């Protein structure tokens, strides 16, 4: 459940980052004191900067997702191991109980036969 909150927060951050970038670009175009060519150059530069930040963020998210997948895989392996161990314990106890029952039945049978 903690991971969902973290994922929601990351998604909210990414959405806010993208929306903020778009709003900032729109405001820059409207309020730009430079000529059209200078404004386009600035916007182009900001777009490249934004692209670099977006790629870095995507790389970070990919790394986090990979780490999370590794953690989940490790937890699943541990749970499977515990499940196998529990099954073996129960199976051993069951076999011991069956053997005890057989011995008790054999003992009673021999007791009846000797009477």
Task: Describe the main β-sheet briefly.
Answer: none
Order of helices and strands: HH
Structural class: mainly alpha
Rg of Cα set: 34 Å
Please give the share of residues in helix.
Answer: over 70%
- Principal-axes shape call: rod-shaped
Please identify the oligomeric state: single chain
Portion in beta strands: under 5%
Q: How far is it from the N-terminal to the C-terminal residue, by CA?
A: 67 Å
Instruction: Determine the mean pLDDT.
Output: 84
How many beta-strand segments? 0
Helical stretch count? Answer: 2
Structural summary, described in words:
With 115 residues, this protein is mainly α. It has one domain. The chain is 95% helix and 0% strand. The chain contains two helices and no strands. Helix 1 packs antiparallel against helix 2. The radius of gyration is 34 Å and the shape is rod-shaped. The chain starts with a helix and ends with a helix.
Task: Describe the secondary-structure layout.
Blueprint: H1 2-31, H2 36-114
Search tags:
single chain; 115 residues; mainly alpha; 2 helices; rod-shaped
What's the short version?
It contains two helices and no strands. It has 115 residues and is mainly alpha-helical.
